[in-house]
Amino acid sequence: MDVLIRLHVSSEAFQAVRFSDGPLPVVELIGALMRAGAVPRSPGMRRYAPEAIRPLFDLFTPKGELPDFVISRRTEISAALEELAMVPAARMRSELFTAFQGRPPAAWLHGLAAGERSARAILLRGIEAGYRAMVEPSWAEISSAAHTDLAHRGRILLREGLARAIASLPSTVGHRGQTVDVDNAADRGVPVDHGLVFAPSCLLPGTLVITAGPGEPVTVVYPAATTVVKARLGRQTSDSLSALLGSRRAAVLRAAAVPRGTTELAAQAGISLSSASEHASALRNAGLIMTTRAGRKVLHTATELADSLMAACELPLVAAR
């Protein structure tokens, strides 16, 4: 039965509460493994998994928990792997022995706890192979679904404030004053001294708290809106939004699901800066993007009309499932 992780957010840290820039690759992999039978462990699923991925099943406790060092908040798989390669062996040993009460279930985990390079290589190969096989083929859809969810939260944040944005999250996340409660399989208080980040997941079946490293924010991962995930991951027809607006203009509109500068729009959509500026202007004239100034920076954000349009373009995909 899930209990609460209680996040005590300091007054200063509460000013830095925000939503993520997108989904987290390692978290999506964890969700994919859980759906594949990692919790409870499924010998059949492990037998049919590619050999490099099989050791990852050993990282889950019977309660479905993982040592904290495995869970990366990085938004790029390459950055997550680099971070994992640098985790001190002493931290791995401590967290493995805590998670498994001193008895890790596999020999390679004992090697990992002992700081063996070969064991760390097994971990890194497993994470990369798991991502390539189980997440990357659907990454475009996962990213699109997550950004649509973030756009919804972002509009609530802009119109109604932070409290309402947090209240819009799934019922597994609660908010009272400067305390955020998250349903989780662990019961502990976690101080939040350097900000709090909310990140959507398309594959994780529940909520997850990623504790903070030195100077880093605590991250709360929540399930993205179910209808959005079904629509994006169930894509079986042509891209209706691109057919309506053109592929580049549609890419710019989707990129504006969260507030972005023109340079960021261009990078996200994979087009030139001048092209991004031209498309943003056309979308603004059509009432699909609003442009605001934050200091010296100009930010473009999809409007509520754009949200309705993107949702309408996905409706046939839900019906097709």
Automatic annotation (TrEMBL):
Residues 239-314 form the HTH arsR-type domain. It comes from the Bacteria. This is HTH arsR-type domain-containing protein. It comes from Allokutzneria albata (Kibdelosporangium albatum). Keywords: DNA-binding, Transcription, Transcription regulation. Pfam families: DUF5937. GO terms for molecular function: DNA binding; DNA-binding transcription factor activity.
